[in-house]
Design goal:
Largest sheet: 7 strands, mixed
Bound molecules: pyridoxal-5'-phosphate
Strand content: 15-25%
Number of domains: 2
Helix content: 40-55%
CATH topology of the largest domain: Aspartate Aminotransferase, domain 2
Radius of gyration: 20 Å
């Protein structure tokens, strides 16, 4: 198989030293060695997320924690914000888990209005609130701070955030924002292979979980907490991933978190400027994502053909998601990618399209 550099919003390009670290020799998951590794990884994740909350390591993709948030924290009725494919899926996960839910939906490409959220929560109907920070299907980044200001008025509502494609690319201060569940998979901005997902879970969410009636076992926060106290997980974790995550977190701190966040911003600015010059941005102004850019295909190019030609140059970008296929296309600028990669991609695209 030929190695194509990935400019898609997950899975993303993984550095060779991280791939190598996945080949670390095994240790038993109830051994002292594992507990040391687990403890180190968790304390680094807490530092990354500016939180005192526990961060659990789950062996599954992000969707697992999305389902977990519903099962552990949605007892009465959920309010789910929908503005794209992933937020729609989160809303839809309520029904098979037998939890009542309503959606607050805005047009794809638009961000959520905190005033509207306030109005809906003020009905007192809801005990759990779901929002996707960065809608990967539309390239919209919601305004977490403004939403958090609203949620602070409703301390009985559990505040759950999917930051799957934004975590590590932008600063997310879990404690300051008051997030009760903040989740992500590692195949996006973490730049690891898929298969592991992390969730920062507050005491409030844990107390709620303790009273949940239909939470099953695999995703039970209380079980995770019980084992976390021994620096372990309830069942065998993806140990290879955890070795690689440990190394990747060290690399984040060696780069410096602020440098990491500004590298993402710089790549976003570069791609947005290129997109505005040649096409148009899909998201409503002010809501453009920092980790991927969703471009309105105003020139009516064939995105599929563009990708075929890019493949000859060992690169690939992403077509639009679902109904937005060919109408939009997406360039991810997250993880380990740098300005050099961005320039390489844009040079190739310009050449192919004759721009
Ligand atoms: C990719 C993605 C998901 C789904 O993640 P999986 O790891 O495939 O379960 C959920 N939400 C967002 C915002 C995503 O980008």
């Amino acid at each position: 198989m030929k190695h194509k550099k990935l400019f898609i919003p997950g899975p993303v390009e993984v550095s060779e030293d991280i791939l190598d670290e996945m080949g670390h020799f095994m240790v038993g998951h109830r051994s002292k060695e594992y507990s040391e590794l687990h403890g180190e990884v968790v304390s680094k994740l807490k530092k990354l997320l500016f939180t005192e909350n526990e961060v659990y390591l789950g062996t599954h993709s992000s969707t697992g924690w999305m389902e977990a948030a519903i099962r552990n924290c949605g007892h009465k009725r959920i309010l789910a914000c929908v503005n794209g494919a992933f937020s729609k899926r989160w809303f839809q996960l309520a029904a098979p888990n037998k939890v009542e839910a309503d959606k607050y939906e805005v047009e794809w490409g638009k961000g959520h209005d905190p005033k509207e959220i306030d109005k809906l929560l003020s009905t007192g109907k809801y005990d759990c609130f779901l929002v996707v920070h960065n809608e990967t299907s539309t390239g919209v980044m919601n305004k977490l701070e403004e939403i958090s200001d609203v949620l602070k008025k409703y301390p009985d509502v559990i505040f759950c955030v999917d930051s799957v494609s934004s975590m590590t690319g932008v600063k997310i201060e879990v404690d300051k924002l008051g997030l009760d569940v903040c989740l992500a998979g590692v195949q996006k901005a973490f730049a690891l292979p898929p298969g592991l997902a992390v969730a920062a879970v507050s005491k409030k969410a844990l107390e709620k979980s303790a009273k949940a009636e239909n939470k099953g076992y695999y995703f039970d926060f209380v079980e995770f907490q019980k084992y976390q106290e021994k620096n372990q997980t309830p069942s065998t974790p993806a140990i290879s991933h955890i070795f690689a995550l440990n190394k990747q977190l060290d690399k984040f701190f060696a780069e410096g978190l602020d440098n990491r966040f500004s590298r993402h911003q710089e790549m976003a600015d570069y791609i947005r400027n290129w997109a505005k010059k040649n096409f148009a941005l899909f998201p409503e102004p002010g809501y453009e994502s920092v980790t991927l850019t969703c471009i309105n295909n105003t020139k009516g190019i064939s995105v599929a053909d563009l990708n075929k030609k890019l493949a000859e140059k060992d690169m690939t970008l992403s077509n639009g998601y679902g109904d937005l296929k060919e109408k939009t296309f997406r360039i991810a600028h997250m993880g380990d990618l740098t300005m050099k990669d961005m320039k390489e991609l844009i040079t190739a695209v310009d050449e192919i399209l004759g721009l």
